[in-house]
Structure formats: C-alpha cells, structure tokens
C-alpha cells in the first residue's frame, strides 16, 4: 500500500470539497447570516488539510494507483469529506458535538438523509444549502466527479471507478473512463436542471427548487423544511418529485441511451422492468389498503401519497409527504422490505439493488432445477447474459455480508437501549442509505436521541451502504496494507 499516493489523491479531494463550500458561502453572504464565518474558517481548514496531504504525497505519481490504493482512496475520501464537510455544522453551532457534525455530514455525502436537526427551518440558508449540496456531490460519487474534472489521474482512474460506482458490474459507457465519468455527470446535471425548472413552475423559489432537486437526484432526502415535501401540500410538486426520484433510482446509463435516441432503452433492460414492476405493485397494494382503511377519501389522493412513499423508500430517497407510521402495519412492513431492495445498479440509490436480487433468485432456481436434473449443464443468466461463477459468488457473498452486518449492527443498537423496532429500522435506514425509519427514527422524527456510540455505528453503516460493503471491508484485511 502506497500511503503517500493515497494522501496525494486525498489532497485533491479535500481541496475540491473546500472549493464547493464557496457556493453555500454565497448564500450566507446574500443573507448576511453568522454562518459566513463558519464557512470561511471551514474552507481555510479544508485547504490546510489539502496542503498537508499534498506535501506528504507529492513525490508519488497518479499512474501508480493500484487496486489496494483505490480501495483506500475511495473509503478515506468519504471519511475525509465528512470531516471537512462537518466543520460548518460544528463552527456554526448547528451541531453541538463533533459526533453530531460528522453524522450529519456523512449522512449528506452518502445520500442517507438521516438528520440530528430538530428544527431545520431555524438554520440559516447557507447551512441548509450545504446539507443538500453534500447530497448532490455524493449522489453520483465524489470519485466519479474527480475523474471527470481531473484527467491527469490517468490510468489508475479505472481502479477508482470500479471501487466506487454502485452495482455489482460497473458499466463503462465509453472506452475512456474520464469520458464515461463526464457522460454520467452530464446526464445527472441535465436531469437536475430539468427538475429544478419544473419545481419553479410549481411555485417553489429558486433556493427550495435547488435543494429539493439535490435531494431528489441523489436519492438522498434532506429538505430545508421541517415537514419535508409535505410542507407544500401540492399534488404537482409531489408528482414531479415522485417521477424524478424514480428516474434517479434507475441506471443512469439507460438515461444516457434514451437521450441518445434509443427510446426502448429502459424497457429492454430486465432490471428496470423488475424495478418498475415492484414499484407499481407495491403502490397499487398500498393505495387499496389506504382506501379500505379510510385514511384517504378518494383514489387520486391515496395513489398520490402511496406512490410518493413507495418510490421514496425503494429509491432510498427518504422524502416524506405523510406519516406512514399511521398507516396499516402491513404497509409499514412492506416499506421496510423495500428499504432492503433499493433501486437499480448504476443509480444513485442504495439498498441491495434489484440486479442482485434478480441474480440471487435466478441462482436459487438454477440450484433447484439442478436437483431434478443433476447431469444437466445449466448456467445462471440475466437476459441474454450468462453470469460467471465469480459474479454469482460475489453477489451471494454480498447478500450474506449485508444481512450479517445488518444483524450485528441491530444487536449493537439494542445493546445501547433502543427498542427492537427502532434498532432494526435505524440500521436498515442507514445501511440502505434511506434516512427515516420507524419508531424513534420515524418519518416525523430524527436521530438526535440516538446515543453518540450509536451515531458512530450508524455512520459506519452509511459508509458501508454507500460503498457497497466490499470497498470498506477490504481495508480490514491485513494483506491490503502490506507492500
């Protein structure tokens, strides 16, 4: 492991995060609020950290980035970003402790949306803008952004890309990794701009439109309003955000192909069809239940709230327009299941991902078929693609690790005194990068009551979920650190 090389890359990322703080600093200057000082000092500290890391690693070349350095860079970049990104919360007094500041920043960059703030609207616009900007930066990925704007990273960029991009099979849309990163960010920016314009037409001001777009396209969930999207009480805004959450939970490569004129790109993709089917079926079931229980008076209202919440949870966004803890228990359990499923590979959403679920189901069927026909030569296939044993094994191991870590973290949270529902849902919501859970971390509550040790456990769960386990866990293997 070339630690100096890792430090050199982290220096660039630290400087980049500090530069992005000028955007919320603009809002603070515009409003003349005290957070001007918090952002100014944070930017200075960020550049000092970048300078120190650069001086330490300046002798090493980016061309020497190998797989071990890539794993270290990706994991540590998110930790470094959360440390620097948490400084404004701490210096402004938004967070009382470093633990709370780190938790809020990690939740932002990992697009989780779990917050410790009890009165969001009391915070200045600079702080609120920064919360949602961290979402947007983390949504497509800090490393992918770096590859798009820092071409001199060069050959080692592919290793960084594979270590960060969500999904079991990272997809290159072009032979050059920098061009792939640019195209992904181009689609991301285009959809973000389109949603912001539509929200402006719905009556939102520019600040609210931008912050809600950041939270939507990153499938994150921070809102500048205490009541989240429910604050507006607008069917138009609800449907716009529902549609864009659904798009953000889809593979961005499909959006690129669609924009290139391949109109059937979405429906030809097997994972998208499964994702669409699960979302549609769950929306239909919850709509019927809400009508039967008399929670909503007509089908249009029930469909609006059911669709929003189903899409918000399966895409791991975490926006809310209703307190779903008041809904029937069956619907709450169904939403809990959706927390584990998540969106599509290659999207900004978290969870296990539909592609992995598909592979696991197909593999299980293959093994059952093999029992009936022991001499048959059969393979696990997704569409026309035959999956290698290595990919199937990797996905099976991922699922076992995911469930194992979920169980361990839940056990630790119950050990801290949380009730079972709160412990289960808080871990599911952070490991799946969703945000709101049930009970004390429900849709109308927050994570302020979680003990400090619990916040560090959940912060680790957020990092594991965003980087899809392997990238983080590989650093626990001693061989990773040997030369």
UniProtKB/TrEMBL annotation:
The keyword Cell inner membrane applies. Pfam families: TrkH. It is a multi-pass membrane protein. K(+) binds at residues 111-112, 316-317, 433. It comes from the Bacteria. Its main location: membrane. It is found in: Cell inner membrane. GO terms for molecular function: metal ion binding; potassium:chloride symporter activity. Keywords: Cell inner membrane, Cell membrane, Ion transport, Membrane, Metal-binding, Potassium, Potassium transport, Transmembrane, Transmembrane helix, Transport. The chain crosses the membrane at residues 9-30, 36-57, 69-91, 136-161, 182-200, 235-254, 274-291, 326-348, 391-414, 456-481. GO terms for cellular component: plasma membrane. NCBIfam families: 2a38. Belongs to the TrkH potassium transport family. PANTHER family: TRK SYSTEM POTASSIUM UPTAKE PROTEIN TRKG-RELATED. This is Potassium uptake protein, TrkH family. The lineage of its organism: Bacteria, Thermotogati, Synergistota, Synergistia, Synergistales.
């Amino acid at each position: 492991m070339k630690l100096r090389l890792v430090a050199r890359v982290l220096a660039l990322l630290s400087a980049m995060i500090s530069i992005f703080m000028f955007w919320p600093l603009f809002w603070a200057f515009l409003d003349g609020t005290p957070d001007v000082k918090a952002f100014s000092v944070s930017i200075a500290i960020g550049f000092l950290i970048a300078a120190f890391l650069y001086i330490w690693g300046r002798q090493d070349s980016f061309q020497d980035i190998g797989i071990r350095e890539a794993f270290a860079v990706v994991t540590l970049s998110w930790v470094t970003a959360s440390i620097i990104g948490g400084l404004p919360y701490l210096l402004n007094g938004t967070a009382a402790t470093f633990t709370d500041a780190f938790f809020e920043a990690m939740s932002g960059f990992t697009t989780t949306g779990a917050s410790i703030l009890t009165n969001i609207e009391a915070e200045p616009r600079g702080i609120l803008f920064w919360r949602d900007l961290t979402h947007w930066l983390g949504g497509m990925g800090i490393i992918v952004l770096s590859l798009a704007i820092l071409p001199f990273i060069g050959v080692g960029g592919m290793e960084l890309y594979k270590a960060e991009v969500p999904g079991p099979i990272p997809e290159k849309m072009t032979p050059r990794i920098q061009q792939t990163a640019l195209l992904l960010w181009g689609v991301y920016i285009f959809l973000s701009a389109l949603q912001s314009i539509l929200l402006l037409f719905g009556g939102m001001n520019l600040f609210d439109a931008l912050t809600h777009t950041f939270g939507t396209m990153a499938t994150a969930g921070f809102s500048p309003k205490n009541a989240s999207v429910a604050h507006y009480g607008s069917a138009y805004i609800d449907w716009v955000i529902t549609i864009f959450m659904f798009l953000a939970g889809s593979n961005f490569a499909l959006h690129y192909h669609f924009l290139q004129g391949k109109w059937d790109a979405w429906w030809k993709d097997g994972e998208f069809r499964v994702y669409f089917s699960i979302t549609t079926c769950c929306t239909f079931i919850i709509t019927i239940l809400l009508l039967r229980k008399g929670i909503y008076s007509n089908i249009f209202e029930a469909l609006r709230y059911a669709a929003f919440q189903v899409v918000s949870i399966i895409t791991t966004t975490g926006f809310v327009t209703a307190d779903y803890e008041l809904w029937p228990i069956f619907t709450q359990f169904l939403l809990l299941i959706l927390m584990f499923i998540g969106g599509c590979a290659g999207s900004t959403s978290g969870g296990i991902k539909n592609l992995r679920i598909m592979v696991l189901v197909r593999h299980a069927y293959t093994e059952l078929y093999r029992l009936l026909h022991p001499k048959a030569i059969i393979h696990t296939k997704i569409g026309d693609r035959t999956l290698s044993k290595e990919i199937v094994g990797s996905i099976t191991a991922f699922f076992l690790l995911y469930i194992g870590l979920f169980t361990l973290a839940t056990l630790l949270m119950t050990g801290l005194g949380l009730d079972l529902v709160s412990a289960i849902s808080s871990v599911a919501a952070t490991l799946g990068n969703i945000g709101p859970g049930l009970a004390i971390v429900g849709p109308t509550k927050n994570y302020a009551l979680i003990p400090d040790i619990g916040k560090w456990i959940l912060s680790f769960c957020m990092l594991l979920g965003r980087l899809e386990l392997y990238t983080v866990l590989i650093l626990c293997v001693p061989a990773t650190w040997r030369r």
